[in-house]
Amino acid sequence: MDGTWNTIVEPFRVKSVEPLRFTTRAERAAALEVAGWNLFGLAAHDVIIDLLTDSGTAAMSTDQWAALMRGDESYAGSESFARFETVVRDLTGFTHVIPTHQGRAAERILFQATTSAGDVVVNNTHFDTTRANVEFQGAEARDLLCAEGDDLQLVAPFKGNLDVDALEATIAAVGAGRMPLVMVTVTNNSGGGQPVSLANLRAVRAVCDRHGVPLFLDAARFAENAWFVRLREPGQADRTAREIAEEMFRLADGCTISLKKDGLGNIGGVLALDDGDVAERCRNLLILTEGFPTYGGLAGRDLEALAQGLLEVTDHDYLAYRVRTAEYLAELAWAAGVPTIRPPGGHAVYLDAAALLPHIPAHELPAQALACELYLEGGVRGVEIGTLMFGRPSPDGPDSAAPHELVRLALPRRVYTQSHVDYVGEVIARVAARADSIRGYRVVSQPEWLRHFTARLEPLTEETP
Ligand code: F0G
Is 295 labeled as catalytic in the residue annotation? Predict the structure, then answer.
């Protein structure tokens, strides 16, 4: 479709439907209370529009479902692996293709094979599991995001870029010998789904080359990144998203990919790289916990569906619809007076709860309050990225505050239609209209690590001391 239409016409029609269950506000209030006001504790059955994540939640195409039937379930040397390997090699150019059950397994194997205590790994922004896998090796995970990336409201084309000067300074201070690899996350999920330019990747590549440090991509959303490059980077408008993605990978020495995102799969990941010695170590670790190197914890049918997904995901009609949908949802939020990270990312809209609810201090969890209200109002589930996720409890004072108070509304791929998104916009507007009366929360019980998944909360009332 050309760009002159206002309706976002999904570039697919529906063959199999999954009913939504419309709950009442009273039912949702009861479900949320049982869940300890933690949206992770809800049964999916009690959610109307689930925007918790874009990971593993995609709808597969007819060609993917057909490919499932071709799955060769041989333990070793299956044809499905051969097909998967060819597709990943064509896309990335990397020699060694190691399938894993999801992205974090690829990360675990890569860092276990390359990284030791005292090392420093640099990233634009480490995704949580990437950071955890670096830290698990006793190494430091350091984020070197460009300055624009920290300014939520600033409109700039490539707010996911890595700060190249800071990278130089880090290598000078730490020494290349203690830096097993540099990683760039495309798009930068933890920084609002913001893209990285080819120019930035080339500059990072040049620094890495000068110091002999390998460059890896965390390429979970490589296709969305390539689309933003095509839209925004001078000189790229005439290239296809596939060509741009191929160049992104060829600027690196290897990659980890969660194929639950731009692989259009419900499960799966891959580690791909050129260095034969590192690949050998990684394959040995793979056999230990994931499986034989030609299936890596996946069924042959999964490999088939993923190979097909990787071919589909750079389709221009799909990417235009995808990115426009996120932008459209952001426009609905702005129209309702709710600020978001700007520009909107490729896979999600990040609502700024601190701006909407200035009367709720960080330790009373404004982003969690907003996430709960969206659920109570209309059964929309997002995820808090604020003090519940990143703040630290303190024994004798309020929790330390996270840098931002955000609610991420992530869009599953090819699942919801424009009318679903309109509905989410209406829910946001109704909540925003009564923002002044929304109150905060307190934590009643929490585990020591990653508390946002299992903490139990309680709404604050006028009587709460
Ligand atoms: N890297 C990035 C940038 C991610 O966003 C994720 C997952 C991973 C790695 C890990 O991949 O889940 O397959 O093990 N992100 C999901 C999310 C969970 O909701 O953003 P995985």
Answer: no
pLDDT above 80: residue 396: no
**Residues carrying CATH 3.40.640.10, the chain:** 62-312
75 is catalytic: yes
Least confident of 92-96, 219-223, 358-362, 459-463: 459-463
CATH 3.90.1150.10, domain 25-54+316-459, yes or no:
yes
Nearest to 216 by CA among 312, 158, 282: 282
State residue 121's pLDDT score: 98
Ligand 1 within 6 A of CB of 260: yes
Tens digit of each residue's pLDDT (9 = 90 or more) over 311-335: 999 999 999 999 999 999 999 999 9
Stretch(es) of the chain classified as CATH 3.90.1150.10: 25-54+316-459
Q: 96, 126, 159, 261: which is the annotated catalytic residue?
A: 261
Is residue 328 flagged as an active site residue?
no
* Domain 62-312 is found in CATH 3.40.190.10: no
Asked whether the predicted pLDDT for residue 464 surpasses 80, the reply is no
Identify whether 452 is a catalytic site residue: yes
| Beta carbons within 8 Å of 305's beta carbon, 6+ residues apart | 60, 64, 65, 67, 68, 264, 265, 266
Using the mean position of ligand 1's atoms as its centre, give its distance from the Cα of residue 55 in Å: 7
Give yes or no for residue 188 CB within 6 A of ligand 1.
Answer: no
Maximal CA-CA distance, the chain: 66
Ligand 1 center from residue 259 Cα (angstroms): 9
Residue whose C-alpha is closest to residue 336's, from 356, 360, 354? 356
